[in-house]
Amino acid sequence: MRSTTVSADHPGINELFALLAYGEVAAFYRLTDEARMAPDLSGRINMAQMAAAEMGHYGLLREALQQRGVDVQEAMAAYAPVLESYHSQTIPRTWLEALVKTYIGDALAADFYLEIADALPEEVAGVVREVLAETGNSQFVVSEVRAAVTASQQQRHRLALWSRRLLGEAITQAQYVLAERDELVDLVVSGTDGLGHLAEFFERLQRTHADRMAELGLA
Amino acid sequence: MRSTTVSADHPGINELFALLAYGEVAAFYRLTDEARMAPDLSGRINMAQMAAAEMGHYGLLREALQQRGVDVQEAMAAYAPVLESYHSQTIPRTWLEALVKTYIGDALAADFYLEIADALPEEVAGVVREVLAETGNSQFVVSEVRAAVTASQQQRHRLALWSRRLLGEAITQAQYVLAERDELVDLVVSGTDGLGHLAEFFERLQRTHADRMAELGLA
């Protein structure tokens, strides 16, 4: 059990919500872009449904920020470069790469939400958990990727490398954000209560990433 | 007051739902494509929210079809060509054209839903009205277009022409669909009860289109 160590007016909370809000918008456009590679209508619809869910999360975060007296669009503009940079560094070349990126990205976001949620005051944590409860739309990915990597050892190696690259790029960008935003560092460190330092936070993300690779048959 | 003239197992109902379902998916991808022309984040977010709403409608239609024992993806494949054709014939060249297309398309869909809804048995009309209640996400378009056409007479003429072309193309494609689908013709004709023929149906669409042009300042 962790205890709440952050007050509801911690300045990192607005920053966190703004970061997540832009993350949702960026994910929306990334998913719809990558859906172009889908081999069939079913894949395009799955991606569209995931993308639509991202805008639902965005709506929750926008409302939460509004209640805190913050304009979402102003607040999130600061996070556009780092999220666009993540996506432009990780443009998939195949539909399978797009699927893996979708799944890993969704899972990383969920991990991140979970890490943070426990440290937040209840009224704020509620928003984060509501968004989190909405993720998991990426389950359709699992069977398609598993089938492909069971059929081809070469695909397994290729997608395992791709998956590691996604994690590496996510960590690079996260470190970049944290270097710029003391409020967020303070929030994350308060969140990883009992550990209290960032290295552990990133190690934990890497462990859950390894679980996800196993789920996809990439371990 | 119109009376219900169609039974719940009218074969046109599955066809109508399938047509509308593909229309929602096509609109999703069209909106996200056209959002690329947005001059700012605010425009991209408005478009993304509209697109997300389309997938909500799609979900309602998919469920309704499932309850009628119909697989949405199989059923709607027949309508892909006509809807893709509409969109490929009406690719906007500017952000204002994209906005007008969004608004007119949303309004035409609403008109179409309304025309049909009254003729349907209550359990089926409920689905249509639920989707209809969800439209109107395109209101953000009005002020932006009105401002542009108030500032420039040339824009007004250009966008008025564009708007007429959109209607013309929609009617062309609708006639094409109806020529191929007797079940849908029968449904539409039952729907326009007291008029009973297609020419009136299209005239009515043209009248409401004129109202929409006036709302946008294009009359």
Kindly describe this structure.
Two copies of one chain form a homodimer. Chain A is mainly α and 219 residues long. The first copy, chain A, has a single domain, classed as Ferritin, core subunit, four-helix bundle (Ferritin), CATH 1.20.1260. Chain A is globular. The two termini of chain A are 30 Å apart. At the A-B interface, α1 and α2 of A face α1 and α2 of B. Chains A, B: This is Hydroxylase. Chains A, B: It comes from Mycolicibacterium fallax. Chains A, B: InterPro entries: Ferritin-like, Ferritin-like_SF, Ferritin_actino. Chains A, B: It holds the Pfam family MiaE_2.
Determine the CATH topology of chain A.
Ferritin
Question: What percent of the residues of chain A sit in helical stretches (DSSP H or I)?
Answer: over 70%
Q: Based on helices, strands and strand pairing, what is the structural class of chain A?
A: mainly alpha
- The chain-level mean pLDDT of chain A equals 86
CATH-level-2 architecture of chain A: Up-down Bundle
Please indicate the count of domains of chain A. 1
| Most extensive chain interface and residues per partner | A-B, 22 and 22 residues
State the CATH class of chain A.
Mainly Alpha
User: Count of helices of chain A?
Assistant: 10
Query: What portion of residues of chain A belong to β-strands?
Result: under 5%
Q: Using the CA coordinates, give the radius of gyration of chain A.
A: 17 Å
Largest sheet of chain A: none
Give the quaternary arrangement of the chains. Answer: homodimer
Distance between the termini of chain A: 30 Å
Number of strands of chain A: 0
Low-confidence stretches of chain A: none
**CATH superfamily membership of chain A, which one?**
Ferritin, core subunit, four-helix bundle
**H/E topology pattern of chain A:** HHHHHHHHHH
